[in-house]
Design the sequence.
């Protein structure tokens, strides 16, 4: 159950999770678990910038610490101010996801799953930022010498979640809309 109230001039968001929230909780939990376990494996197996070719000419596992945003955007020195900014952005994104869930939870399960994936990804990367001051990335796709920026399971979940969210917006009619047209 989600409620958004105004109390003493402040906005209060209260979330209570029950059976109906499993579509949100399960994807988020699976993403966080898979993301953190894969990063633990990379950290315990690889040295920084070490590469293991999986599919020659296409895909490698490469341990990179990302001080920037998604796909290395705005990367730079590992300064406290930079990390504080990215932690604040992640927390703000999680608040927006909670508000979006409160508003969209009855519009279809696709929104709960999408928000769960996005939230799980944001939390997975937030855990890294708090623990390490940056995000552990390791999926390295490339053709020849042209590389896509390294990424991780959390980044993938965020992208899939955004895709599902857009799919829900553009192609899936809200509950009751089909009956209104008859």
Sequence:
């Amino acid at each position: 159950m989600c409620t958004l109230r105004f109390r003493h001039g402040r906005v209060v968001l209260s979330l209570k999770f029950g059976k109906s929230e499993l579509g949100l909780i399960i994807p988020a939990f699976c993403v966080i678990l898979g993301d953190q376990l894969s990063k633990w494996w990379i950290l315990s197996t690889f040295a920084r910038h070490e590469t293991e070719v999986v599919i020659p000419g296409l895909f490698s596992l490469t341990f990179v610490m990302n001080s920037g945003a998604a796909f290395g955007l705005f990367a730079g020195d590992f300064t406290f101010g930079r990390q504080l900014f990215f932690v604040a952005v992640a927390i703000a994104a999680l608040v927006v996801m909670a508000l979006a869930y409160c508003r969209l939870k009855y519009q279809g399960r696709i929104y709960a799953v999408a928000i769960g994936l996005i939230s799980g990804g944001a939390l997975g990367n937030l855990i890294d930022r708090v623990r390490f001051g940056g995000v552990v990335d390791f999926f390295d796709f490339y053709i020849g010498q042209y590389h896509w920026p390294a990424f991780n399971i959390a980044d993938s979940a965020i992208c899939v979640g955004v895709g599902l969210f857009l799919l829900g917006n553009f192609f899936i009619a809200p509950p009751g809309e089909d009956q209104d047209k008859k």
Remarks:
- The CA atoms of residues 72 and 114 lie 23 Å apart.
- Strands lie at 2-7, 10-15, 51-55, 59-66, 135-143, 146-147.
- The chain has one domain: 21-181.
